[in-house]
């Protein structure tokens, strides 16, 4: 009964292994190429290899089964040590790596088989196999294991082969099998394997996925050890269900780019949220400060209302005062007319004075001639004396007329008409549109500023200055600083705040300059007053820089004194613009008119170059200077002395002539000065009258504007008092609630770090899992059941219909000489083609099923 059971077990196991191997051989590796006209041969490919105990190749052959489909020849590519026709006697034609079989159409077989002996495919298999053995935990040679007692451990190392084709690495699976007789063993252990009992036989099956490194271990306890060897099967996984893996891989490739973009976007978003927390808190702090400012304003609104009432009262008083100005301007116009007329009379009198002096000069010349005649004694003495008396009387008459003219001129000069010019007319005289008195004051001030900055390191005066010196001078000239030291301190403070703003914006690039300034205040690095001073001064410095670049061509260029005067004139007009009109457009218009400003600046610099201001105002003082030059007694006193001298002593006539000529020269100078003064006054009177008329119009418009402003402020005061309480309360609630909301939002952003950590963890799991199954551990997700198989012998071959690799290691058994002789005799018997094919498979199956005998 036990013998029958043993035989049945061997048959069942043989049947099971036959079905398993036949099914493996029939797995389609990939869809064949299109048949086209139906005469393309197709083939199946199998590689058989026998290994020694340890995994070294002993023998290897490729067997190819062709279906000719009506073709009369076939060509196979590959390097073979020997080619054996397993079908008929057709000899192969070998040329390089091409092996060709040609048939006549009548004798061409429908199926053709040949064997190519070669070790090359073994080197390119997707796994490198090695086997080792231990007995009771001690390493031992396989040749010494047969018949041993104890626990034998068989270890199979399957290492992925990087030299294999990509198709083989990604699609081949490895099955490792071993069979033991249940009656001949004491124990069997195979971790990770599927162990099946078939009859009285134990079958152990291991599987390795594509690209997977495996170490299979089998532990067998026995009293008389024997082992039929390991059997390995490598085949592409082409089951239809595996196509889903290829779809998963394709979808992963499609989604990977979008996922990376999504992951990057999430990182950016989370980073932004992380940075947003501090900004929200700073904004909330700013709102608190704003609410405090509101409270301050609210507390001081009663004072504002009181001051507003006072302003309204002042406006009303100013309007009343301005209403009287038009009448005064009309009186001034009449005064100008009177001054002009009086100056014309002075000019006429001066002309008469010149004529009188000419008469006196002629008389003196006549007296000199008469005296010379008398002294020489020539001619009729009586006649000479009579002529001398006549000439003396003429001289006395001329001197009397001159004296009277000078007295009249003295009265007009000292009577108050001309002396009024310095206070009333001088301020109305304009040079190139500038009031003379204002111009002189301005020039003196700018000269002082220029002298303070236009020096070198040793204190010597220079003709040019640089941009930083200009900044200091402009701040002093505009009243922003009282000294060069104050200006330098202000510039350093502004530069320090600029650096602080830059540091804040480096951390928060989205912030504006105003936002960065608020952040500095919120961080305690600036006070509110310092921030306000910076906000007021920074625009001034920007405008100063624009003016410097416009005038000089760049901040790296030097500035002359004329350029400095031009720049200050432009800055004055820009600063004079009302706050609501100080726009980039209006500033640009002033900068665009640089040529006109340069003309005035040049004139001022030239005027300033003459430090003797009497040359400018001297025209107004020449009349009194002339009288002073003539002596303490005035011109009239000198002439009276001259008359006395002619009455008492003719011997001093030469001295009198000299005095007369000196007086004549001075009067000529006087006449020139008076004419210049008259011309200047006549030139300026039309402009002065136009100015008076424009001033009158301006005053009238100012009165209207002040009245309108008074009405507006009255309405505004009423509106503010009516809505002030509601507006204050609403603003308070809005600011408090908004600040609270921002702080809550900021607290929410504190959790961004946890979200990002979780996101990174999920991302790591996804990436690690995918990498594990795409090369790190195995190539499961790279499997493609629809990919075309690749021939084991050459990639030049078309894709085979199926492909498989069958490998068996040497068996470990005691020697049986009679069995070996019988097997060799059977293998040597001549057979037909079918017999040879059957013999080949018989040899293989005998090896596989030898364990049943």
Kindly describe this structure.
The protein is an alpha+beta fold and about 850 residues long. About 60% of the residues lie in helices and about 15% in strands. Helix 9 crosses helix 16 and helix 11 (about 485-505) crosses helix 12.
Please give the structural blueprint:
Blueprint: H1 2-26, E1 42-51, E2 57-67, E3 73-77, E4 82-85, E5 93-95, E6 98-102, E7 111-117, H2 120-123, E8 127-135, E9 138-139, E10 150-160, H3 166-171, E11 172-181, E12 187-189, E13 194-198, E14 201-208, E15 214-222, E16 231-236, H4 243-299, H5 301-323, H6 325-376, H7 381-414, H8 421-425, E17 430-431, E18 434-435, H9 436-453, E19 464-465, H10 467-477, H11 484-507, H12 513-522, H13 528-552, E20 559-560, H14 561-575, H15 584-592, H16 594-609, H17 614-617, H18 622-629, H19 634-648, H20 653-749, H21 752-776, E21 803-809, H22 817-828, H23 833-849
Parallel strand pairs: 1-21
Antiparallel strand pairs: 1-2, 2-7, 3-6, 4-7, 5-6, 8-9, 8-10, 10-15, 11-14, 11-16, 12-15, 13-14, 16-21, 17-18, 19-20
User: Major β-sheet, in short?
Assistant: 9 strands, mixed
Counted by DSSP, the helix tally is 23
Strand count: 21
The share of residues in helices is 55-70%
**Overall mean pLDDT score?**
75
Radius of gyration (Å): 62 Å
Question: Which structural class should the secondary elements be placed in?
Answer: alpha+beta
Low-confidence stretches: 1-32, 414-433, 610-652, 817-838, 847-853
> What share of the residues does DSSP label as strand, in percent?
5-15%
The global form is elongated
- Main-sheet strand order equals 4-7-2-1-21-16-11-14-13
> What's the N-to-C terminus distance?
18 Å
């Amino acid at each position: 009964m036990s013998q029958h059971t043993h035989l049945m077990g061997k048959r069942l196991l043989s049947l099971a292994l036959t079905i398993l191997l036949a099914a493996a051989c029939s797995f389609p590796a990939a869809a064949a190429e299109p048949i086209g006209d139906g005469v393309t041969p197709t083939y199946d490919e199998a590689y058989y290899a026998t290994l020694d105990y340890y995994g070294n190749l002993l023998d290897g052959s490729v067997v190819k089964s062709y279906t000719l489909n009506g073709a009369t020849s076939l060509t196979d590519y590959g390097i073979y040590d020997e080619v054996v026709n397993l079908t008929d006697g057709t000899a192969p034609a070998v040329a390089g790596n091409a092996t060709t079989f040609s048939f006549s159409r009548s004798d061409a077989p429908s199926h053709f088989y040949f064997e190519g002996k070669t070790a090359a495919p073994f080197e390119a298999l997707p796994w490198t196999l090695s086997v080792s053995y231990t007995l009771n935990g001690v390493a031992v040679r396989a040749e010494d294991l047969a018949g041993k007692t104890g626990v034998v451990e068989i270890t199979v190392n399957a290492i992925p082969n990087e030299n294999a084709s990509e198709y083989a690495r990604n699609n081949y699976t490895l099955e490792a099998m071993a069979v033991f007789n249940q009656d001949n063993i004491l124990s069997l252990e195979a971790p990770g394997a599927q162990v099946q009992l078939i009859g009285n036989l134990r079958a152990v099956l291991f599987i390795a996925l594509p690209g997977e490194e495996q170490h299979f271990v089998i532990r067998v306890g026995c009293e008389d050890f024997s082992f039929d060897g390991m059997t390995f099967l490598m085949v592409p996984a082409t089951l239809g269900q595996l196509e889903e893996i290829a779809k998963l891989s394709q979808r992963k490739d499609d989604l990977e780019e979008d996922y990376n973009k999504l992951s990057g976007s999430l990182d950016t978003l989370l980073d932004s949220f992380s940075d947003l927390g501090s900004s929200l808190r700073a904004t909330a702090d700013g709102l608190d400060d704003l609410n405090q400012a509101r409270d301050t304003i609210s507390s001081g609104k009663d004072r504002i209302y009181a001051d507003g009432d006072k302003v309204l009262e002042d406006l009303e008083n100013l309007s009343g005062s301005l209403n009287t100005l038009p009448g005064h301007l009309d009186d001034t116009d009449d005064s100008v007319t009177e001054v002009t007329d009086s100056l014309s009379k002075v000019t006429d009198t001066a002309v008469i004075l010149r004529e009188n002096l000419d008469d006196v000069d002629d008389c003196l010349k006549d007296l000199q001639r008469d005296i010379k005649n008398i002294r020489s004694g020539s001619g009729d003495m009586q006649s000479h004396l009579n002529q001398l008396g006549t000439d003396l009387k003429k001289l006395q008459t001329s001197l009397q007329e001159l004296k009277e003219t000078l007295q009249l001129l003295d009265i007009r000069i000292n009577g108050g008409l001309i002396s009024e010019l310095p206070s009333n007319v001088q301020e109305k005289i304009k040079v190139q549109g500038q009031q003379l008195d204002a111009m002189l004051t301005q020039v003196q001030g700018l000269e002082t500023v220029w002298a303070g900055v236009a020096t070198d390191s040793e204190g010597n005066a220079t003709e040019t200055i640089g941009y930083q010196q200009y900044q200091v001078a402009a701040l002093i000239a505009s009243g922003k600083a009282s000294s060069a030291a104050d200006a330098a301190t202000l510039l350093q403070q502004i530069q320090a705040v600029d650096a602080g703003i830059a540091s804040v914006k480096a951390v928060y690039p989205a912030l504006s300059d105003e936002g960065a300034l608020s952040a500095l205040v919120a961080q305690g690095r600036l006070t509110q007053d310092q921030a306000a001073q910076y906000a007021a001064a920074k625009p001034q410095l920007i405008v100063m820089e624009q003016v410097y670049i416009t005038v000089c061509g760049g901040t790296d260029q030097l500035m002359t004194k004329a350029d400095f005067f031009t720049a200050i004139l432009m800055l004055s007009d820009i600063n004079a613009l009302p706050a609501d009109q100080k726009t980039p457009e209006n500033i640009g218009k002033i900068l665009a008119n640089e040529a006109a400003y340069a003309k005035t600046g040049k004139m001022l610099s030239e005027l300033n170059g003459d430090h003797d201001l009497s040359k400018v105002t001297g025209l107004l003082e020449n009349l009194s200077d002339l009288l002073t030059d003539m002596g303490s007694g005035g011109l009239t006193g000198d002439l009276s002395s001259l008359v006395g001298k002619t009455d008492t002593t003719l011997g001093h006539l030469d001295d009198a002539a000299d005095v007369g000529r000196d007086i004549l020269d001075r009067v000529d100078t006087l006449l020139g000065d008076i004419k210049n003064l008259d011309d200047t006054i006549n030139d300026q009177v039309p402009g002065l009258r136009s100015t008076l008329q424009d001033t009158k119009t301006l005053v009238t418009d100012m009165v209207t504007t002040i009245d309108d402003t008074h009405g507006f402020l009255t309405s505004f005061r009423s509106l503010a008092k009516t809505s002030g309480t509601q507006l204050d309360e609403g603003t308070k609630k809005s600011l408090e609630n908004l600040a609270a909301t921002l702080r809550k939002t900021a607290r929410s952003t504190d959790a961004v770090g946890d979200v990002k950590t979780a996101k990174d963890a999920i991302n790591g799991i996804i990436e690690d899992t995918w990498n594990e199954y795409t090369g790190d551990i195995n190539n499961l997700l790279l499997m493609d059941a629809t990919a075309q198989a690749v021939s084991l012998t050459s990639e030049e071959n078309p894709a085979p219909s199926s492909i498989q690799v069958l490998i068996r290691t040497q068996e470990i058994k005691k020697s049986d000489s009679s069995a070996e002789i019988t097997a060799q005799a059977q293998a040597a018997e001549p057979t037909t083609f079918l017999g040879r094919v059957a013999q080949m498979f018989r040899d293989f199956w005998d090896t596989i099923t030898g364990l049943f005998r």
